[in-house]
Amino acid sequence: IKMAGDSRFPDVDTDGSEKSEEMEIVVNVGGVRQVFYGDNLIQYPETRLAELINCLSGGYDSIFSLCDDYDPGKREFYFDRDPDAFKCIIDVYYFGEIHMKKGICPICFKNEMEFWKVDLKFLDDCCKTHLSEKKEELEEIARRVQLILDDLGVDASESRWKRCQKCIWKFLEKPESSYPARVIAVLSFLFILISSVVMCVGTIPDLQVVDAEGNRMEHPTLDSIETACIGWFTMEYVLRLISSPNKLHFALSFMNIVDVLAILPFYVSLTLTHLGAKLMELSNVQQAIQALRIMRIARIFKLARHSSGLQTLTYALKRSFKELGLLLMYLAVGIFVFSALGYTMEQSHPETLFKSIPQSFWWAIITMTTVGYGDIYPKTTLGKLNAAISFLCGVIAIALPIHPIINNFVRYYNKQRVLETAAKHELELMELNSAEGKATGSKSELEDLSREGKESPFYNSRLKVSHSDTFIHLLSEEKHYRTRLQSCK
């Protein structure tokens, strides 16, 4: 295919003697025209643009296998793709690397690179980070959607015991699954609060009673309430352990370890009370029981299972180890320096409170953290000046890492809300698409598909389709590419 007199494309001899390096092609991507020279394109012969150089000699079949349309009069190739992403991708032919423009969805950009057959290794590391974060978000959304679909699905091949385990697990672990499950979650929350209040109230001397040996102990009524709470916690933990799909992961989970620590002291104290007196002195038994009863404070951490805010705080602290490490390092350096200076400056005073540098550490800690108990304080002028400087340095050292920690908390909290909304959005779209696919028009196609079981081919084929702009590839084995006319949220 060639047009006589067209200077952009030199005539091609029948023997193919024209060199591809001298060729020039015109590409129109979404209304944006670009001119490319063969010597640039052949650097990456496996890309789609490089294949355009040799497709003219193969006829229209070869041309339309690479592009959406072709104008033989203008010798122009047309592509219905994103022009903004294309402008970034063609940088590989000139600079050997690709940078993603701000505002472009990383997943869409990855799909565009796959269409133009450009390897992801040419994407710069700074942009690969955004792509990895987006992939993690989609994986999380897919995981949440799949969990909900698993809850809705009923496998007819499963035994009655397996189905019973799933019901118990949803009943105890997923309050949003049903109204009774929400009631159980509220009851569990109330038992935690009651147990914590009883633990605090039991230490009030006016509410304690004196036993035969003259020792103070908790009121029997409070002890009965504590026993009832422990019974609830024990029953809840055992049922969750029995119904857990992965018992090893359940036992090693941090929150479940906290549950065990909240329950275990009660039974150990009970054992020591009835059997410990035979093995050791009564006073030692009482001390051991008192130490174990202090461990009841661990049950307050059980609230994290019912509070997304506490979970977000835990994650933010885990992601802020670097900032927390810097904070501790700043304080450690300041404590060492100012305590040594304070000890040296206060030695001239006859009534000095700085007896040694290790003892001065305590003064430096409470000064730099702006606590200031006043048990140790400088008495000389230089010592007071040193204290003022240490106070100011402490405020600065504490304030510097706070902003990144707060940012981590806000970022993760907002991300969790977005992921939760996105998962619900995907389920609504799946249900809507499934309902439209049925001629009878049932109320909830998603529930009907779940009753048919996951092994049904209709179930698999319908749930693979999503009309969402943020299509989750992980829920489908098929590959879906989006055109430039589709938006990204």
TrEMBL record:
Coiled coil: 415-452
Tree of life domain: Eukaryota
Annotated Ion transport domain residues: 182-416
Pfam families reported in the protein's UniProt record: BTB_2 (PF02214), Ion_trans (PF00520)
Classification via InterPro entries: Ion_trans_dom, K_chnl_volt-dep_Kv, K_chnl_volt-dep_Kv5/Kv9, KCNF1-like_BTB_POZ, SKP1/BTB/POZ_sf, T1-type_BTB, VG_K_chnl, Volt_channel_dom_sf
Molecular function in Gene Ontology: voltage-gated potassium channel activity
Annotated SUPFAM superfamilies: POZ domain, Voltage-gated potassium channels
Subcellular location per the Swiss-Prot or TrEMBL entry: Cell membrane
Gene3D superfamilies per record: 1.10.287.70, Potassium Channel Kv1.1, Chain A, Voltage-gated potassium channels. Chain C
Domain Potassium channel tetramerisation-type BTB residues, every copy: 25-126
Transmembrane feature ranges: 183-204, 248-270, 324-341, 385-406
GO cellular component labels: voltage-gated potassium channel complex
GO biological process: action potential; protein homooligomerization
Annotated membrane topology: Multi-pass membrane protein
Keywords assigned: Cell membrane, Coiled coil, Ion channel, Ion transport, Membrane, Potassium, Potassium channel, Potassium transport, Transmembrane, Transmembrane helix, Transport, Voltage-gated channel
Protein family per UniProt: Belongs to the potassium channel family. F (TC 1.A.1.2) subfamily. Kv5.1/KCNF1 sub-subfamily.
Function, as annotated: Regulatory alpha-subunit of the voltage-gated potassium (Kv) channel which, when coassembled with KCNB1 or KCNB2, can modulate their expression and their gating kinetics by acting on deactivation upon repolarization and inactivation during maintained depolarization. Accelerates inactivation but has relatively little effect on deactivation. Coexpression with KCNB1 or KCNB2 markedly slows inactivation.
Assembly and oligomerization: Heterotetramer with KCNB1 or KCNB2.
Name of the protein described by the UniProt record: Voltage-gated potassium channel regulatory subunit KCNF1
Lineage of origin: Eukaryota, Metazoa, Chordata, Craniata, Vertebrata
Gene that specifies this protein: Kcnf1
